[in-house]
């Protein structure tokens, strides 16, 4: 059995893979380490750090454990040109589709008891000469099934 965090990540990836908005998004397990690792499409999604603010093993007794965890993620869009607004619009559209996907499947294919929240922050900046980047970094808060 996969750890609840890994199962939730895999389920969310499968859910997003099935949605048209994510057809040209490169999924990664971590940020690129070198410039040549950056997607040629300019759109990418990767996992960030996971936080476990609560491990409810003590309150469950013999039933096992129930975790509350926050899966960090980043949505990054890079566009060539002088318009910083275009990559920002794409990033917000991907964020909105992520939220719709989670609302439509709040148990992430039954890998968690419930997704309880989605938070984050967005910013724009220069990626390279004649290239703009928009990034949304956030976290998905989940309550695990008992295990």
CATH level 1 name: Alpha Beta
Spatial shape: elongated
> How many DSSP E strands?
5
Q: Taking strands numbered 1, 2, ... along the chain, how are they ordered across the largest sheet?
A: 1-2-3-5-4
Q: Which CATH architecture is right?
A: 2-Layer Sandwich
* The number of domains: 1
Q: Sheet bearing the most strands, described?
A: 5 strands, mixed
The number of helical segments is 3
Q: pLDDT below 50 for ≥5 consecutive residues: which ranges? A: none
General description of the model:
This protein has 147 residues and is α+β, with helices and mostly antiparallel strands. The chain has helices at residues 4-17, 57-60, 85-104, and strands spanning 26-28, 43-55, 67-80, 112-128, 131-144. It has a 5-stranded mixed sheet.
Layout of strands and helices, then pairs:
Elements: H1 4-17, E1 26-28, E2 43-55, H2 57-60, E3 67-80, H3 85-104, E4 112-128, E5 131-144
Q: Features of this protein?
A:
alpha+beta, STM4215-like, 3 helices, 147 residues, 26% helix, 5-stranded mixed β-sheet, 5 strands
Question: Can you summarize this structure?
Answer:
The protein is α+β, with helices and mostly antiparallel strands and 147 residues long. It has helices spanning 4-17, 57-60, 85-104; strands at 26-28, 43-55, 67-80, 112-128, 131-144.
């Amino acid at each position: 059995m996969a750890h609840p965090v890994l199962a939730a990540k895999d389920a969310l990836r499968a859910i997003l893979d099935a949605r048209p908005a994510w057809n040209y998004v490169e999924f990664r397990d971590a940020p690129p380490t070198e410039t040549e690792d950056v997607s040629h499409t300019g759109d990418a999604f990767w996992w960030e750090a996971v936080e476990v603010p609560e491990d409810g093993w003590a309150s469950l007794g013999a039933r096992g454990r129930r975790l509350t965890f926050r899966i960090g993620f980043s949505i990054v869009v890079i566009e060539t040109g002088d318009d910083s607004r275009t990559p920002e619009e794409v990033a917000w559209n991907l964020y909105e589709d992520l939220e719709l996907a989670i609302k439509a499947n709040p148990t992430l294919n039954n890998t968690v008891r419930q997704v309880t929240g989605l938070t984050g922050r967005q910013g724009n900046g220069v990626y390279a000469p004649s290239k703009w980047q928009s990034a949304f970094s956030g976290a998905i808060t989940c309550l695990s099934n008992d295990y």
